[in-house]
Amino acid sequence: MNEPAIAESYSLLIISAAECGPAAYSLEDAARLSDVHPELLRYYCRLGLLGEARAQPGAEPVFDDDAICELRRFEHYRRRHRVDRQTLRLICSLQREVERLRAELRFRRGP
Amino acid sequence: MAIKFQDYYETLGVDRTASPDDIKQAFRKLARVYHPDVAKNKVTGEAKFKEINEAYEVLGDPDKRSRYDELGPDWQAGGAGAAAGEPGRRGAPRQRGGEPDFEFGGTGFSDFFESFFGRGREGFGGGARPGDGAAFAREGPDVEADLLVTLEEALRGSRRTITLRRPGEDGGADRVDTYHVRIPAGVREGQRIRLAGQGGKGQGGAAAGDLYLRARFARHPDFTVQAADLHCDLELAPWEAVLGVQALIPTLDGATSLRVPPGTAAGSQLRLRGLGLPRADHGRGDLYATVRILTPEPVPAEERALWEQIARISTFKPRKEP
Predict the structure, then answer these.
(1) How far apart are CA A35 and CA A72, in angstroms?
(2) pTM
(3) How far is A13 from chain B (nearest CA, A)?
(4) What is the ipTM of this complex?
(5) Last residue of some domain: B217, B242, B264?
(6) Does A82 touch chain B (CB under 8 A)?
(7) Domain that holds residue B263
């Protein structure tokens, strides 16, 4: 009688499957997903907090998953830790410097 | 959810007192055998390659190695490694901030690595939303996990299956979600793939956070990465450097022949255009081969006599006399 054993194993795991991959978002979508006002998002772009590469020159900016993650992080700092925009800019530049130095160190150490 | 201790020294087959050079050599030797492109058994080879990569990620980094050595075998039983609050260490890693933690499968990193050497899973988020109405409503935290990506995957793209196991609600059965993740050709080191609403659970009916998989390039036995460019060593005999040679070098597109011009000095870089990783502009970076000149050891008597003859007749002065 295998049935009870099968039923029990099903009760242990709920399996779901989803297909996912990198995405590109319009400014409005990025603002909605990260819960920021579109004007605030434009302001972050002007400050260079989201990186030049993420806004296509001349055209409407396009945002990737990294941008959504960073925007949500900005909002977290701003709302929960009352971080002002100048401090946010400082945090961003320090984070980028750390990432750059990590990459440099990794490269220097070689394979 | 129990975390299994990983013996990285055993994985690389080196002694605990091994020098950084010994560790690097052991990694390169094993990585050449088990690299997914060359392994005889693709499935076991890939699993072994990931284990080797993780071990080298820790033992090849002096800071991580020293933290790992401090952990010791009693790492989970309140020993040195379980001390909470020390920088870079995550004692009792599964229950931070009162949130149940996650167990990933298929990312290429073990849970042990993620807990002690990963970038941290619960990053941020979880803010109460103004205007939500309910004062206790708090969105779930966003969660990050590293995803090991080989350079070949970064070049050609791939699909991976990731599992995420988390404790069930109210002590119920564990929940396992499976995701088929598309890794695009040209993925950057550190690039994130967002899985909306798959992060930490919200409170008071608020939405769950997001889950981000962050690409981390696997160490390659031959290449290091600098943006979209690849770098490798080109080892030459002294006479090859002087006379020039046609050398075969490895690339991600297969071995290719490179003409080394006569009189090539140690440290010279030879560029192979377009044999790097994909760039954002749809082109490709370059491959740089840096010349290293190796000397034979020991030198047979006949060769030594020839070198001595060169030393006598050559007028070449490599340095200024003080």
Answers:
(1) 8
(2) 0.79
(3) 5
(4) 0.74
(5) B217
(6) no
(7) 224-313
